[in-house]
Amino acid sequence: MAVGLGPLPDFFPVPGVKLGVSSAGVKKRGRKDIVVFELVQGSQVAGIFTRNQFCAAPVTVTRRHLSENQPRYLLINTGNANAGTGRQGLLDAKACCQALASVAGVTGSEVLPFSTGVIGEPLPVDKIVQALPGALANLSESRWADAAEGIMTTDTLPKGATRQVQLGEHTVTISGISKGAGMIRPNMATMLGFIATDARLEPALMQSLTTELGDASFNRITIDGDTSTNDACMLMATGQTGPEIGVDSPWLSVFRAALQDVFMTLAHAIVRDGEGATKFVTIDVAGAGNQQEALDVAYTVAHSPLVKTALFASDPNWGRILAAVGRAGVPELDLGALEIYLGDVCLVRHGGRAEDYSESRGQAVMSRPEITIHIDLKRGNVRERVWTCDFSHDYVTINAEYRT
Questions:
Q1: How far is residue 28 from each of residues 79, 83, 92, 178, measured CA to CA in Å?
Q2: Mean pLDDT of all residues in the chain?
Q3: Closest-CA residue to 171 (of 363, 382, 12, 359)
Q4: Rg (alpha carbons) of the chain, rounded to whole number
Q5: Contact status, residue 224 vs residue 186, Cβ threshold 8 Å
Q6: Hey, how many other C-beta atoms are within 10 angstroms of the C-beta on 332?
Q7: Residue 31 reports pLDDT greater than 80
């Protein structure tokens, strides 16, 4: 049911990155559920993570290992989140890192673990460890598509993006994959994102780019308002190609634009494949006095079950949107000034239904698979966008039957 989400692209290999995939039978026998990234010596890695205080054991271990070493390997398992597992979960995450490190000939702190799946169940360490040699045996620069499948949980389609950009005489590559379909709420979501480039980036630029672009993409999507325990988005730079890019580099703007495109494509793909989604919805809030009030309005609309079910029904019940804007907490909101649009159709003007609005025009927009709800607060010059989807019968079914 993914909305406008097509097949995976033909990935450009990233020099210095190899991927391996195997099956451990973590949740289902024979399913690809172990993915390994191997990074060339000297690579840099930066990341952003969930802000859920019950963050999963692999998130804690990954943060610690990043502070201790430059990683050589990333290890991802699906089917089990290793979250809500206490001290044993930390020991299990470290054990998996050490097992991979022993086979690969590196230290345990050079391995970053990532997990996604059911919360509160012990990680099947033995199964994962037994699958590691298989993943290492098939390491290849060309296994991006297999890796995109290997990190899926309730996703219906694998998600990926790949770009090349010319920096002088050098062709720099950016490729990435992501997963996520439910328990998606900014800061971040049940989502994993892995983006790699062969660009030579100054160390000071790595984290700032990851944070900046992650905030504008992965931290602007929401499916159900639930912030997961396991979110991570990682940027890897192998430094194998091109001129060094720093904050004052003439190549930075070109590279940033291409990298932003990959971040945004991967983030939007998660919403397009939201559990049971039939609509891809942009909430565009303009005329705000500051960023926070713009986001407050956008998220209040995006998280409203009444708005989301109306979207699923293709019902232009604009009163639900109006009510959500009104309860978003914007102080001294001028109801007579603001305007609300569904696509190019004005719903609300001068504090009530727009004079030229008709149900047929609203219905025509609501029947589309991709919809923009535009809200102009008429208070300032700040603009923010959030991307979401509808709530369907299938969303309830998928989550009611998640563990069965």
A1: 8, 19, 20, 21
A2: 92
A3: 12
A4: 22
A5: no
A6: 6
A7: yes
Query: Do 232 and 115 contact (CB within 8 A), yes or no?
Result: no
Q: Where does 280-400 sit in CATH, by number?
A: 3.10.20.340
DSSP 208-247: HHHHHHHHHTGGGB-SSSPPPS--EEEEEEEEEEEEEE-T
User: Out of 33-37, 182-186, 346-350, which region has the weakest mean confidence (pLDDT)?
Assistant: 182-186
Instruction: Outline where 13-165 has alpha helix (H).
Output: 57-68, 86-104, 125-137, 144-150
Q: What are the structure tokens assigned to 258, written together?
A: 């291409």
Separation CA 163–CA 397 (nearest Å): 36
CA-based nearest residue to 232, from 175, 278, 274, 176: 176
Q: Rounded to 5 degrees, what are φ and ψ at 237?
A: -130, 120
Token pair in block for residue 168: 């002088």
Question: How far apart are alpha carbons 86 and 316 in whole angstroms?
Answer: 47
User: Catalytic pick from 50, 62, 190, 227?
Assistant: 190
User: Tokens 């102009």 correspond to what residue?
Assistant: 376
CB atoms within 10 A of CB 289: 16
Q: Which of 223-227, 233-237, 310-314, 332-336 has the lowest mean pLDDT?
A: 223-227
- pLDDT, tens digit (0-9, with 9 covering 90-100), for 68-120: 999 999 999 999 999 999 999 999 999 999 999 999 999 999 999 999 988 89
**Cα separation, 128 vs 283, whole angstroms:** 41
Determine if residue 242 is left, alpha or beta; phi over 0 gives left, psi from -120 to 50 gives alpha, anything else beta.
Answer: left
**Looking at the chain, how many residues does it have?**
404
190 is catalytic: yes
Element (H or E) spanning 73, and its range?
strand 73-80
In this structure, are residues 75 and 123 in contact, taking their beta carbons and an 8 Å threshold? no
pLDDT band at 189 (very low <50, low <70, confident <90, very high): very low
CATH number of this structure's domain 17-272, picked from the four choices 2.60.40.10, 3.30.420.40, 3.90.76.10, 3.60.70.12: 3.60.70.12
Rounded CA-CA distance 349/352 in Å is 6
Grouping H, G, I as helix, E, B as strand and the rest as coil, residue 161 is: strand
**CB-based burial of residue 403 (10 Å sphere; 0-12 exposed, 13-18 middle, 19+ buried)?**
exposed
Mean pLDDT, residues 291-300 taken together: 97
Domain-wise residue ranges, the chain: 17-272, 280-400
